[in-house]
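Session log. Operator J.P. requested a structure for one protein chain; no other inputs attached. Running the standard single-chain path with token output.
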Amino acid sequence: MHPDTRSYNAGQTPDVRKICDRLAREIDRALPEAENKIWHAHPVWFLDGNPVVGYSKLKDCVRLLFWSGQSFEEAGLKNEGSFKAAEARYVAAAEVNAEDLQRWLGKARDIQWDYKNIVRRKGRLERLK
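Structure written below.
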């Protein structure tokens, strides 16, 4: 786990920290080649400079966000925003289903929209994989 992600997790309440630690461990295990850093104040993992997955503490839960998640066609993910992102929300570490999460992370590697160049393309996304 990246030291900045470890610090982010350590700054959470004990219950939230358990969720964050579990998510970070599972993401690191599934995407060992990904670059992990704090981006816009939250842990995010990147493949070739493109954000693919991250999480953040919201008021009443932890949101796991997949930038290209709407293309995964997974019932456990809800659409988020006006682009291709989808999310899952957790209030307890026990809610994190490792099998679902590993499947979603595999799709995050294989199905990507080019968020890295979205500004240059004036808000238009192109499919990478």
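Operator note: The mean pLDDT is 93.
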